[in-house]
Amino acid sequence: MKRTFECGHSGKGQYCHACAATAKAREDLRHTRNQKRDAKRLAAAAGAVDLSIVDHLGAVQREARELLSKVNCGTHPYALRGKSLKSTSGLILSVPVGRSYRLLFDGPTLAPLRLVSHEDYNTIADNQVAA
Ligand SMILES: [Zn+2]
After folding, report:
1. Which of 87, 123, 118 is nearest to 102 (CA)?
2. Ligand 1 centre from 37 Cα, in Å?
3. Which residues contact 26 (CB under 8 A, 6 or more apart)?
4. Helix extents (H) in 73-115
5. What residues does each domain of the chain span?
6. Among 77, 99, 104, 127, which is least packed, fewest CB within 10 Å?
7. pLDDT profile of the chain (131 residues), mean per 10
8. Cα–ligand 1 centroid distance for 87 (angstroms)
9. Predicted TM-score of the model (pTM)
């Protein structure tokens, strides 16, 4: 038996299927947009750090991106084998990437700072240059 719903559509059942379909489509679109936004945010977090020094090292670059996205999603650098640089009184955290590189994070905000080679890292850790 057909009936007319409050929205003006007519159909069978307890609720208007036309409006339900519209609402679902809208919800799906919102969901897709959120996913796109999250993906963009992740890319931005990774993009905030110059990874060009490992352009020739695909695996290191992938690992760096993965670490950046983990920290961006709330994993603390300490959970990723990170440690604070003593010379910076914990203001800078470093996470090993591969065997020869380290990602530096701002301690208080956990914002990614830069990717450094082991040599760069040593001079920063020795407080010879700023990060
Ligand atoms: Zn309707």
Report:
1. 118
2. 30
3. none
4. none
5. 1-47, 51-131
6. 99
7. 91 93 94 83 69 88 92 93 86 93 92 90 76 62
8. 66
9. 0.62
